Amino acid sequence: MKLYSTNGSKKAVSFREAIQNGIAEDGGLYIPYEIPKFPESFFSKISTLPFQEIALEVANLLLKDEIPSDQIEKIIRQAITFDAPVRKLAPGLNILELFHGPTLAFKDFGARFMAKTLSYFLKNENRELTILVATSGDTGSAVANGFFNTEGIRVIILYPSGKVSEIQEKQLTTLGGNITALEIDGTFDDCQRLVKQAFADEELNKRQWFSSANSINIGRLLPQSFYYFNAFARTEEKDLPFIVSVPSGNFGNLTAGIMASIMGLPVNKFIAATNINDIVPKYLETGIFTPKPSIQTISNAMDVGNPSNFARIKEIFKNDYNSIKNRIFGFSFSDDETRGAIKEIQEKFDYLIDPHGAVGYLALKKFANDNFNYYNSVILETAHPAKFINIVEEVTGRKIEIPDLLKGCLQKQKQSVKLSKEYGDLRSYLFTF
Ligand SMILES: *Cc1c(COP(=O)(O)O)cnc(C)c1O
Description:
Blueprint: E1 2-5, E2 13-14, H1 15-21, E3 30-32, H2 40-45, H3 51-63, H4 69-79, E4 86-90, E5 93-97, H5 107-121, E6 129-134, H6 138-147, E7 153-160, H7 166-173, E8 179-184, H8 188-199, H9 202-207, E9 209-211, H10 218-221, H11 226-234, E10 242-247, H12 252-262, E11 269-274, H13 279-286, H14 310-316, H15 321-327, E12 328-332, H16 335-349, H17 355-368, E13 376-381, H18 389-396, H19 404-410, E14 417-419, H20 423-432
Parallel strand pairs: 5-13, 6-7, 6-9, 7-8, 8-14, 10-11, 10-13, 11-12
Antiparallel strand pairs: 1-2, 1-3, 4-5
Helix pairs in contact: 3-4, 3-11, 4-5, 5-6, 6-7, 16-17, 16-18
The structure holds pyridoxal-5'-phosphate.
Pyridoxal-5'-phosphate binds next to helix 12.
């Protein structure tokens, strides 16, 4: 696979370079020159394949020119160790549950695949790679878990002290081993600034080999296309228009869906479901992309005021507003509407959904005018409701069972290194690391 930058540099890089660099030299995001297509025959047998086999087929299609198939198979067997099941709520209305991984959110797919792939590429290096990542919560826990015990890679996570939930903090700080959590006396923006300063520090980079694992890395994006194929494979009404509603923040997930459709997955429409951070729905309405400061909501993993992956979507559609508008519908919703949807889904379908999935439901409902049975529709449920236990319990009056995976880390002892938000402190720490 050869990739180029969304910022205009047409210099082709390999997948290996793209995953190691994270971001292109000119500051843009990597995007494949060409996305290969499955033959029709793949889709006639797809419902007979289990998820892991589907993931293997997609990974082979994309990466076989760069990674031998036995190694691709090894990566998939190690990374995709949990299912992405579909629950049918009503005729034409399905939920794709993406929360069965170790941190109970869809980011596990990308983080684990990226970790195993990087580890494969680094096998013959005799230096260690250090992944530096700033997190406001969920990204850090998925990355920490994904890279835990991965040979040749150490991970340093910076998180804002007192500004992540208790569950998130435990997920970040209780693994140990090759994972180190730095508790920064500052905000998420401070953490992000510190990481950028470290990447730009020439003296430091001579001593240590750094990379990032944030969501714009193509190594996290590609594996997210796997479960779109699985969604189609597991639904029953395949002759109706296939509609996918994607709760969106930075738009990585939706970009992966569009890539799946270029590979031949017959998606009729994508629905960009957002909270009041409505930059993309506004763009779809007006043709103007206006980033704004993000606003805090109860679906906080989607509180993004400048969705970076939209640059990839524009590039894929050659910046043609009309073709984007033809494929993607966008709707945004308030927290009150989101709470209402959590309650409605519990009452109508006896299903507990998290706030992000609830936004996906609202957008699909608006698109379908309540007539779900005209479509073969799927809502991506991006997190387990137990991750947002307070909101979901309050709205539904139901008790949520905390999954064993979460219970386990809640009982462990937090281990973190406390640092100020001054770059000098981080720098001295990294020099002795
Ligand atoms: C990250 C995240 C999102 C947003 O996904 P993008 O790929 O950034 O659009 C949605 N829901 C949950 C639970 C998330 O963690």
